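To: structure desk
From: M.T.
Subject: fold request, one chain
Message: Could you run this one when you get a chance? Sequence is below, nothing fancy, just the single chain.
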Amino acid sequence: ILYQATAEAVVSTQSTGMPAASGALGQNKLNAQCMLILTSIIHLGRSSLPKRPISDDDVDWLSLCIRVINDRSPLLVDIFTRACRSSLQHMIGTFLRMELTETKKTLIRTDVDALINFSHLVNVNDNKAVDELELSLLQATEGTKKKESDMSTTALSKVYQLTGFSDPVYAEAYINVNQYDIVLDVLIVNQTPDTLQNLTLELATLGDLKLVDKASPITLAGNDFCNSKVQVKVASTETGIIFGNIVYDITGVSGDRSCVVLNDIHIDIMDYIVPSHCSDSEFRKMWAEFEWENKVAIQTNLVDMSTYLSHLLTCTNMACLTPDQALHGDCGFLAANLYAKSVFGEDALANVSVEQDAESRVLTGHIRIRAKSQGMALSLGDKITICQKKEQDA
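Reply: Done. Structure tokens follow.
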């Protein structure tokens, strides 16, 4: 429809440059035929005959073409006959350069006198230069030996302190996130000389989380410790909360059971979101279909729009669908589309609109998030708000 309308408008506007011998009658006749075709397309699209009705964007474009044919102003004639063609050529050239760049990146060149490395004969601890691909394959098949002094920072970031150091029972949990479940490895330490009987770890969940099993009661001697594992099933990508307490009896002491309230554990949805890509038409289709939207205001100390976009992509695990060529330049405004997908098959869309003040260089704007479920949209909005707050406090 858009190509047909543009072609009709171009043919009609190019007819304005016909010689006078052809007469105004022939020119008006051609314009009337083009306008009749375009109006017929609009009436057909709005009728019940086609399987899919015409969209509002197509109607707006057809109406614009009809107005161009009717007005025939020199400015519109120049836009349709010259500016549109040059813009199309520029866009096609940009895509060709992008494809050529990607082809050069994937092109593998090997010299005729290059050495051949045999993986079974390579010593991993050898300091000589080894082909990185062969070395990675060797490490994947044979494994790597970690030094005892190495410390995994990612593992430490998953440890949550559940009680205080002054509480009679100290507890901390290590969270192991799998694809569809969470395993809580809770360390419980008895900081009193008394023996604690019927010590029970009672947990509850909020959100789309479900406890698979409950911890059994244990008896803990004075200044002793133990580990208790609890499995939690995850049903969707939504910010979940795990809370609870530890109850126990003290040997030789009668009365009510003692209770220690645990700190809440907020499950990070970034463990379930991975960057993904889709076409522009699929993005627009999902944007129109998804009914839940969350609008987050931009509040940041950063003054560069590209830096802020990179920071946002890192915080949300989303991929930028807008080409790099469209993000370059210094016009004081940036707009980009982001897309991510969860391990549960849920789609998350985001549109970033950033504007920079010319004098103060302060970034303002909004981030619109759309998802099929309310929890997904709210969770992503909360994650962006937390990241912006941490960046401001830093």
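Reply (cont.): The first strand starts at residue 159 and ends at 161. Let me know if you need anything else for the meeting.
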